[in-house]
């Protein structure tokens, strides 16, 4: 007797967790540029399309779910100890495609079993949306480990009765879960407002860059994106704007081991940064650039060099 398929809603939640988790992990560790979004969308759709072509989808579904968990775990393990690396996210296209394979395979298996196409699609879609929201909320309130553990739960439920496919992913995930609690640095707040905020506003806060509220480092202010509705776009920065920029900037001072913090490394020489000037140079291609020196001195609590 063939094994019953798992719930479309459950599979949708699981797939939403996987896709959103991959996007958040890649954006945090490698790049939050448009190329990362393009990678996740393109590779996921490619994997889903391959799943639709399965000749025996009901039999292949557990394999696809297990492969997706292992691929997700491998990507999470590879990037779990990295806060920012100068590497292309396209190296992870195979992992994204493998995670998306179960999407098409499940749909093909449900339709082959006589289920109503519209009902399956609707339930999987609603589950997918719920999984995406759950991943975002878990990451925001519980941290990166939520992105690891939540897919384990949903994947194990979807693979109920077939635990071997999930055991490899469990081993991979928990091999990389040693992440002690760290304190976010808090350099001088007044100095940030006087010295660092003007530099970030001048060099980084253009609308297509860190003046975009969707960026992890968001710097609102005069002549750029504003918070609230000031009488004039050129009015002096509000306390809320400077406070938000301060909190975002100090969060980017967290570093792993001997790696430099992303706030100082990402815009500097030889970093894989998308913010380039009209000459194709990085924001601070010169390691002695005055703006980079101001950021470094503030972060390290030393005196800024004279301009």
Automatic annotation (TrEMBL):
What highest taxon heads this organism's lineage?
Bacteria
Which residue ranges traverse the bilayer? 36-53, 65-84, 90-113, 125-142
Give the compositionally biased regions (Basic and acidic residues).
Answer: 271-284
Q: Where is this region: Disordered?
A: 257-288
Q: Does the keyword Transmembrane helix apply?
A: yes
Q: Keywords, A to Z?
A: Membrane, Transmembrane, Transmembrane helix
The entry's protein name is: Cytochrome c domain-containing protein
């Amino acid at each position: 007797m063939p094994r019953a398929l798992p719930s479309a809603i459950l599979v949708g939640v699981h797939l939403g967790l996987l896709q959103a988790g991959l996007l958040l992990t890649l954006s945090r560790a490698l790049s939050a540029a448009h190329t990362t979004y393009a990678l996740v969308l393109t590779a996921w759709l490619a994997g889903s399309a391959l799943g639709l072509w399965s000749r025996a989808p009901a039999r292949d579904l557990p394999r696809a779910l297990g492969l997706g968990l292992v691929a997700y775990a491998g990507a999470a393990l590879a990037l779990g100890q990295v806060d920012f690396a100068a590497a292309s996210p396209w190296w992870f296209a195979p992992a994204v495609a493998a995670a998306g394979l179960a999407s098409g395979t499940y749909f093909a298996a449900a339709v082959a079993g006589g289920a109503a196409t519209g009902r399956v699609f609707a339930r999987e879609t609603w589950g997918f949306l719920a999984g995406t929201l759950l991943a975002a909320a878990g990451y925001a309130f519980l941290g990166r480990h939520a992105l690891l553990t939540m897919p384990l739960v949903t994947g194990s439920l979807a693979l109920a009765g077939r635990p071997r496919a999930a055991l490899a992913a469990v081993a991979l995930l928990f091999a990389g879960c040693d992440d002690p609690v760290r304190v976010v640095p808090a350099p001088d707040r007044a100095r940030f407002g006087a010295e660092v905020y003007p530099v970030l506003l001048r060099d980084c806060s253009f609308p297509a860059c860190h003046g975009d509220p969707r960026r992890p480092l968001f710097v609102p202010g005069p002549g750029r994106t504003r918070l609230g509705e000031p009488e004039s776009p050129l009015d002096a920065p509000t306390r809320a704007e400077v406070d938000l920029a301060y909190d975002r900037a100090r969060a980017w001072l967290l570093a792993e081991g001997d790696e430099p913090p992303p706030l100082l490394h990402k815009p500097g020489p030889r970093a894989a940064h998308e913010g380039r000037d009209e000459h194709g140079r990085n924001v601070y291609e010169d390691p002695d650039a005055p703006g980079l020196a101001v950021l470094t001195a503030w972060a390290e609590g030393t005196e800024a060099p004279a301009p």
